[in-house]
Amino acid sequence: MIEIARGLIATNGLRSLKVRDVAEAADCSIGSVYNEFGDFDGLILTVNRETVRALTARLVAVPAEDPVRQLHGLAETYLAFAADHANLLRSLFEHRMEDDRPFPEDILLMVMQAFALMHEPMVRLLPDRNPEEVALLARMMFSAVHGIISLGLEERMVAVPPEKLRQQLAQFVDTHLVGLGISLDKARDGEV
Amino acid sequence: MIEIARGLIATNGLRSLKVRDVAEAADCSIGSVYNEFGDFDGLILTVNRETVRALTARLVAVPAEDPVRQLHGLAETYLAFAADHANLLRSLFEHRMEDDRPFPEDILLMVMQAFALMHEPMVRLLPDRNPEEVALLARMMFSAVHGIISLGLEERMVAVPPEKLRQQLAQFVDTHLVGLGISLDKARDGEV
DNA sequence: ATATATTTTGAACAATGTTCATTTTCAACC
DNA sequence: GGTTGAAAATGAACATTGTTCAAAATATAT
User: Fold this and answer.
1) Is the CB of B63 inside 8 Å of chain A's CB atoms?
2) How many domains is chain A built from?
3) Within a domain: B35
4) Protein residue at shortest CA distance from C1' of D20
């Protein structure tokens, strides 16, 4: 059932997800969807939860030997996920809850965890800086990468081809690291 | 009537905009809204059009004497606009059209024009690089700024206070420019 | 003043999230 | 096997909301 909802979101976007379609595809009644997820938001959030879980799993799997390479890997992995599951990511970031119910804590935590994955390599690259400041830098870098990817893939706005985007992202990460005073060559070979 | 719709979006978000509310507030019938805008999307797009127009107007007004200062000004102006009109900007970037009707050409052009405002100062700062490459850099930088701001202001995700965000943005722009090999002090004083 | 065109209206319709009394299913017990 | 009571599934009915369109109201022309 979650599978079905995810498929519908992935192929046609969140807007085209209908309770009745899910129920019919799952060969059950409308009421059963409500018994399972409480309401429509509950269904969407369940899909979103799995989306961020899948994303985090991929990001965590990025090798961490070399911090610079890790940062590139995180950006590339994020891009690959976004390119493969554009609608699912949009559902995660753009869906507003009914009324103004609070965003579920656990999803928030997982997103934060994903954000924080850039923290460790950044600390390694900037051992002398205040860790709190580095945390902000990491979040900022993640946000920047997110922006580049999400706007870059936006079809409405003349999307950049993924391969082109991959190059741009790599360039962006390098540029930013250089700007932070990190020597790319050194980091890529030596230490650890 | 546009005014009313904008007010409703701005205060409660796009999701809470209802045709009936607009009609009632405008003291006219539901049908009149349709006569004026064709359909619901038409109304939203009209508001979005004015949003991007207002944003562009503010960005264009940023002084262009010094390219580095201009880039900072553009980022700060964008932040100020986003902080003041978070829901309107979200409506512009997140609204999906019914079915899959194409995104209106004129709005697309205006957004592109806004993107392109970073192009000129970047060309001035990187006179030796291929202008096409610089255009990509500019778009990338705009996307990064957009990402930092939109995620930064996202209340669901523990929003960064705007003042803090302002500092971070300035730092980001500086860092990126340094990474591109641009001397900030020189640029800030000399040449033109 | 009449006729024609234009605009406005809002009741009716369609799509869709939601509820809940009813039915069905299932498990436990005698 | 039959009885009983809890648990789960059902889908008709409802509420909200975008949309349509024949009719009414208004404006314009002659």
Assistant:
1) no
2) 1
3) no
4) B31
pLDDT in tens, B147-165: 999 999 988 887 888 899 9
In a domain, B24, yes or no: no
Give the distance from CA A13 to its chain's centroid: 17
CB contact under 8 A, B148 and A150: no
pLDDT confidence of residue A138: 93
Q: What is the CATH number of the domain that holds A146?
A: 1.10.357.10
Q: Is the pLDDT of residue A190 over 80?
A: no
3-state helix, strand, coil in chain B (%, to 5): 75, 0, 25
SS3 B145: helix
What is the radius of gyration, based on Cα positions, of chain B? 19
What are the tens digits of pLDDT across the range A69-103? 999 999 999 999 999 999 999 999 999 998 778 89
Q: Does A152 lie at the interface with B, CB-CB under 8 angstroms?
A: yes
d(CA B146, CA B164): 16
Put simply, the chain A residues between 77 and 106 with a CB less than 8 A from any chain B CB are 94, 96, 103
The answer as to whether A12 is a domain residue is: no
| Residues of the domain holding B90 | 55-189
Instruction: Identify the pLDDT of residue A162.
Output: 87
Asked if residue B105 belongs to a domain, the reply is yes
How many A×B Cβ pairs under 8 Å? Answer: 86
